[in-house]
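Q: How would the C-alpha cells look for this protein?
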Amino acid sequence: MSTQGGSKWGLALVVAIAVVVLDQVTKAAVASSMRLHESIPLIDGIAAFTYVRNTGAAFGILAGRAATLRTPFFLLISGGAVVLLLWFLRGLPAERRLLIVACGAVAGGALGNMIDRVMLGEVIDFVDLSIGAYHWPAFNVADSAITLGVIVLCLDALRQPAPSRVLS
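A: Here is the predicted structure in C-alpha cell form.
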C-alpha cells in the first residue's frame, strides 16, 4: 500500500471513529441526563433536544415489526452499506479527500447506529426540528453524518460526466 493510499484509509478511519465516538457520547449524555420523551427547547418552535428511542429505521420505518426480524435486517443493511463504502473507497484516488471524508462519515454513522441496535435493540435520537406545523422526525449525530456524507457523494456523482456509451 502506498503512503497516499494509506493516508486515504487513515483519513476515512479517523472520520469514522470520530463520528462513532461523538455519536455514542452524545447519546449517552442524553440517556443519562434526560427522561424518555423529555424535551428541552433550544430555539422556541424550531429546535429542541427530545429524548426518543427509535425501533425502526429512518422515519420509524419497520418500527412495528418484531425485534427478532427487525434487528438482524437493519444490521445486515448497515453492514452491507459499510462493505459497499469500503469497496467504493478502495477505488478513490487519495486526493479526493472530500469524498474520503464523506465515506468515513457514512460508515461511522452506520456503525454508531449499529452499536445502538446491538446494545439496546433500538436507536437513541434526540435532535428535534420543526418549523410551524412541519415537524422532522428526531435524529442523532450518526444520522446527521450519514445524511451529510450521502449528500456529498450524490452531489459528486451528479457533477461527474456520464460515461460515454459505444453502440456496436
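The mean pLDDT is 87.

Strands lie at 39-43, 47-54, 123-131, 134-139.

Upvote if useful.
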